[in-house]
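Appendix B. Chain record.
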Amino acid sequence: MRRWALPVLSGLILAAAGGLLRLRHELNTPFYGGAGAESFVMIDHGSGTNAIADALVAGGALHHKYPFLLLVRWQGLERRLQAGEYRFSSPARPAEVAQRLVRGDAYFREITIPEGLTSGETIDLLAEAGLGSANEMKTLLERGDWLEDLAPGISTLEGYLFPDTYKFSRHTTSEQILKTMVAQFRTRISRLLAVSPLPAGRTLPQVVILASMIEKEARTFQERRLVSSVMYNRVRLRIPLACDPTIIYALKLAGTYDGNLHKSDLSLPSPYNTYLHAGLPPGPIANPGIDSLRAALDPVVSDYLYYVSKNDGTHVFSKDLRSHILAVARYQKRALRTAAR
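Structure tokens predicted for this chain:
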């Protein structure tokens, strides 16, 4: 028995040493074995550590699962691994994979929706980024009932897809995407209304319509409040708003906008033609940002009835038609001279 004990013990020691060396090698060698340039691994809520390791091996993030399991259990990370979809595209050590799951560094597609886009343009931007289905989202734009409690009577989500930066997973549905944007509108407008209540005699849909026009007309917050003042004054006096962006919106709806506004377009037979029709157009012409909504709720108190662009992002505001005609002549002539150079 003694003659066999030493060789057996030596063999066990060598096997253990070999195992430790292999374990050390696995723990210290970056690995990626995905089937393509990138691999996505879904970790479901409630998954046990063993199931997580199996998913990571199947997705090519790990070479073998046991070094990962030993590491996670040794460091007490079992309860800290977070669910989500993870993207792997380069070699990583098991410890690095584990830390990604601990951080919850799940894969999302981030997209920034600028202020002033129409809902159609917003949907096109989302679809181009691989988020949702353009056709599905365009159908969902008719779900004005999602805001029935806040903006009763609206028939479309135009104006209510709040411009912001969003993170969506690859599996977020078209409905979830639009509902997220509508929910962000709810959150932001609720905060605004707590500070600046609706003006007397105005409804929230009317404020959103006004804000959408302000968004297209002015850049700075102070000028947006002045443009808001002009629009309120003209609506009160039943003077047509004569807002070019409303006609451009009508042309976009008709699919005839070529990037330029022509003099003949000013007689376009559309309810959005604010040269022909006094008061607000029938709906928002874009999705306004927070500053335009704030300006629509809190306009400057003024006697201004007109404004004209100075072609540098700012405007000249006038109280009477004569002053406005002089400002138009001055800045339109300057724009024509600049364009001719």
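Further analysis of this model is presented in Appendix C.
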